[in-house]
Write a structure and sequence with these properties.
heterodimer, A: alpha/beta, Rossmann fold, six-stranded mixed β-sheet, four-stranded antiparallel β-sheet, 36% helix, 26% strand, globular, B: mainly alpha, ABC transporter involved in vitamin B12 uptake, BtuC, two-stranded antiparallel sheet, 11 helices, 71% helix, binds adenosine-5'-triphosphate, binds magnesium ion, Branched-chain amino acid ABC transporter permease (chain B), nucleotide-binding (chain A), ATP-binding (chain A), ABC transporter ATP-binding protein (chain A)
Chain lengths: 256, 297
């Protein structure tokens, strides 16, 4: 752990110093009653970056993402987005200000159609604008054309994940939060999900990604944070975050 | 044959009223898991408004609009004053609050209007009708059935085609994720209460056209019927509420036609008994839907 401790200060800031930091969490704490899920967490994301948040089950990753959009109970710290303090804003106002979350388990509106799900993702758009954005997503998600009128709950897991990502993108967020998009998917479908993330990177979408699949996530990310028991154990450029350090976080302290 | 047709018209007309009440109850329940017993008092508000405006000589059409507006406003006030703070309270608290609100409103009516029934001066056309052979059809029934049909159809289109309609549906399914779409929780809840109030107002118009006097507790019976319709159909689902309303009316009219006169005082007990048997067979209602537990708004 000691070798990583000093890494934290030097590399917790963006890979490209010129890029503007758009999301900054400072001393963030989340607690569910007596359960402290996140403690004193600092995190930054710069425009155009892909940042990955790693950690074992129960490390506090989802709590962290949810805290950004105001869905989990924050008990301390602050969050700014594009220079504005969003710490006390409601979820809907945070989303409207340009942050979109694809929640763990996708959470599609299962008895509504694919198109209806996307319409809600673009709720703030007028109909014509929505149609344009919907069309625009077709090349990245061919599924949207094929299954537009299918009930979302009847799609396969991989298809649902694509719809969930598309639903988060249709409102043109400037920061996309992805919570374990590959969870529970067959390996070949996982490939597809990572392809999509890479394509989003080419399109300059800023992404904060939570993943269990550390190796693959570090391959596409610029930087990473490794969480364990609610705190950041290691942080740095993706290339520098050795697998051993991650294994430590997953199997060592986190197992306790 | 004529008698059968007559009963059929009665059942469809009564079912229309029940369906409208049940829809109003179901919209709020589906989103907030709140059994709003004060839904009946929204109808009573419309009833007293109808009474007061018609007494003052206002044209019936205007009086009808005023009555609907009054129950919409009452619904919005209920949400703001009574229910908003309790949105994340546990179901039992909500249930008790809603019951208390209903009783409090009845006391308020008693204070303002007294216990004596207020007769509503219905326009003459309400009693008018026409004959097809032996069959006498009241225009009122035709109105009730046609207008209810139009309301159910436009509600369906509204929920299917507009963003706020979609949001009402998605909030009923998963409120947290609906907020993740950038949709304001308050807007959804206020929208639900507005719709519910409008449906209560329209149902009240039809109800008081058939029972033309208001007392403080007038809303109780139709509210109870609306709830039973919801439960028969499956709580939380709007189509189920409509079907439940018509089913309840058919049960009532059917039992009334079959039972001898000596049993008719027990009609409600018999109908509720049948409903209970039905629920033992299908506890979730005929079209029971899955309920998600996380309702915390
Ligand atoms: N709604 C909740 N109520 C109470 N405790 C919770 C709640 N959500 C999460 N926790 C607890 O907070 C801690 C962190 O959970 P969290 O879901 O953030 O972890 P995670 O890193 O996303 O895990 P996973 O990889 O399993 O998704 C865990 O101990 C969990 O049990
Ligand atoms: Mg998680």
């Amino acid at each position: 752990m000691s070798s990583l401790g000093n890494q934290k200060d030097s590399s917790a800031s963006p890979a490209n110093p010129a890029a503007e930091v758009i999301l900054r969490a400072t001393g963030l704490a989340v607690a569910y009653g007596a359960v402290e899920a996140v403690r004193n967490l600092d995190l930054e994301v710069a425009a155009g970056e892909i940042v990955v948040l790693l950690g074992a089950n129960g490390a506090g990753k989802s709590s962290m993402l949810n805290a950004i959009v105001g869905l989990s109970p924050r008990v301390g710290g602050s969050i700014t987005f594009e220079g504005h303090d969003i710490t006390r804003k409601s979820t809907e106002m945070i989303v409207r200000s340009g942050i979109s979350l694809v929640p763990e388990g996708r959470r599609l509106f299962s008895n509504m159609t694919v198109r209806e799900n996307l319409r809600l993702g673009g709720a703030a758009l007028g109909l014509a604008e929505f149609e344009r954005e919907f069309e625009r997503l077709h090349d990245l998600f061919p599924i949207l054309r094929k299954r537009a009128d299918s009930q979302a709950g009847l799609l396969s897991g991989g298809e649902q994940q694509q719809v969930a990502i598309a639903r988060a993108l249709v409102g043109r967020p400037r920061l996309l939060l992805l919570d374990e998009p590959s969870l529970g998917l067959a390996p070949i479908i996982v490939n597809r999900v990572f392809e999509i993330i890479e394509e989003l990177r080419r399109r300059k979408v800023t992404i904060l990604l939570v993943e269990q699949n550390a190796e693959r996530a570090l391959k596409i990310a610029d930087r990473g944070y490794v969480m364990s028991n609610g705190v950041v154990e290691a942080a740095g450029r993706a290339a520098d975050l050795q697998t051993s350090a991650i294994e430590n976080a997953y199997l060592g302290t986190a197992g306790a | 044959m004529e008698l059968m047709l007559q009963q059929l018209i009665n059942a469809v007309s009564l079912g229309s009223i029940y369906a409208l009440v049940a829809l109003g109850v179901a919209i709020v329940f589906s989103i907030l898991r709140l059994a709003n017993f004060a839904h009946g008092e929204l109808m009573t508000v419309a009833g007293y408004t109808l009474y007061a405006t018609l007494l003052a000589g206002v044209h019936w059409l205007l009086a009808a609009v005023a009555a609907i507006a009054a129950s919409v406003i009452a619904a919005l006030l209920l949400e703001r004053v009574a229910y908003r703070r309790l949105r994340s309270a546990n179901p039992l608290t909500l249930l008790i609050t809603s019951f208390a609100v209903s009783v409090a409103l009845q006391s308020l009516f008693l204070l303002f209007f007294g216990a004596r029934p207020k007769g509503i001066e219905l326009p003459a056309f309400v009693d008018a009708g026409f004959r097809i052979g032996q069959l006498r059809v009241q225009w009122l029934d035709v109105f009730i059935i046609v207008i209810t049909g139009l309301i159910v159809l436009s509600l369906h289109l509204f929920l299917k085609k507009t963003v706020i309609g979609l949001a009402l549906r998605s909030a009923a399914d998963d409120f947290r994720t609906t907020r993740l779409m950038g949709i304001k929780a308050n807007a959804v809840v206020v929208g639900a209460f507005m719709l519910s109030g409008a449906l209560a107002g329209i149902a009240a118009l039809f109800y008081f056209a058939t029972v033309p006097n208001v007392v403080p507790s007038s809303g109780f019976e139709p509210m109870l019927k609306g709830f039973i319709a919801c439960v028969i159909g499956g709580l939380g689902s709007l189509p189920a509420a409509v079907v439940g309303g018509f089913l309840l009316a058919f049960l009532e009219v059917g039992s009334d036609a079959i039972l001898s006169n000596s049993l008719s005082p027990y009609l409600d007990a018999i109908v509720f008994g049948i409903a209970i048997i039905l629920l033992r067979w299908r506890p979730g209602g005929l079209f029971g839907v899955r309920m998600t537990e996380d309702l915390r708004v």
